[in-house]
């Protein structure tokens, strides 16, 4: 018995040693992802993965790129870019290690200070001397800027003939919608990894570029065209530029006492107020930053003792006016008077999404919107219905359009759709609103058309088995343009009255299209 116990113990010990040896061998054979990155990737994507010739490879920048897609890109490369596939050079396990490693945080965390922003700026020689008139013959007010996310290009479309006029390469992953100067000559693009590109539409050339941050949400252009503001996720900052993309100042996205900081959810221009309005992702505040040279001075908090210096104001222009909220806003849009901001909250953990109305004059939440699910208020529209002003918004969770009266903040109707959607669009001269169901696995191929006078669905158009989304109208509202949101996609032109297809242009995942006139006139049917 003693011998048997000894043999068993010896066997267990030998098995343990064998397991350790095997584990050690596996560890030694495991690919060294940091070394592989330095050898194959750093030259284009930067030593700290902050980007260079190629985009940033930070977790914040890759949050919308699924890991299987990242693996595919490393393996096969990207068409029409300098990203070559590494399948011939690396083993499958090495590629897998790289794909996993780029989603891990960089330590120590990279920084992006004012000096870095200024050093990043480049200007195209001679761009300022280009003629102040288009080099092409189309209507500059009915021009469409089409962002093709499939191969990171931008197409310019004649909105009368529906012909592509020009196509050029863009920065990686443009986001948040391009913004136009007030006369429609210049367009400003913001990329996920922080670059702002100023492009001269009339002369078909880049004017200047600057990197505002390492991970950026969107940009806004002031109504007078003099100022550009960028909202950053990383670092937690806002960056203010002049029209030539020269840095004016940065704002730390923190509470007034500096104890908490936040990602910046979005920044939008409020032209009638001569200000930028800013939502913070992690702090329950909505900021308003005036660019009016005659803006009234700002006082932080209550002034009750001038001897303590509490009555000393801050300059009104470019100062931060804070509206304190119960919960942070993920995104928002305005009523046509720009008195109210409608924002959606995406709480963490067990909390439920909700919507709130912020009065920008009294600087507080004045109503909660009775919307279930996950409202996508950043894509809402407003219009008149039976003598009342209403807003309508798609829902990211439920197949529904919620219609709310703006005077009472009470629900008017919930319009059922085939599935949850992301975009809703209309036009002042059109009777109809169009919405997609692109968040639905079964109805992503369907656009639902709603009669704004009856609030009833009246028709639908389909692209079977493919994603159909993001409507934009021509400046006169006669035609509606939709995206087949696929790599081998297309731009489809529909008659906005009969809903019949008029023309189809092949494009590479046209994620968004933007009409110059509708954007600069702040059409009630599109995002601002």
TrEMBL record:
Pfam families: Cytochrom_D1, Cytochrome_CBB3. Gene3D superfamilies: C-terminal (heme d1) domain of cytochrome cd1-nitrite reductase (2.140.10.20), Cytochrome c-like domain (1.10.760.10). Residues 1-29 form the signal peptide. Residues 28-106 form the Cytochrome c domain. Keywords: Heme, Iron, Metal-binding, Signal. This is Cytochrome c. It comes from Sphaerotilus microaerophilus.
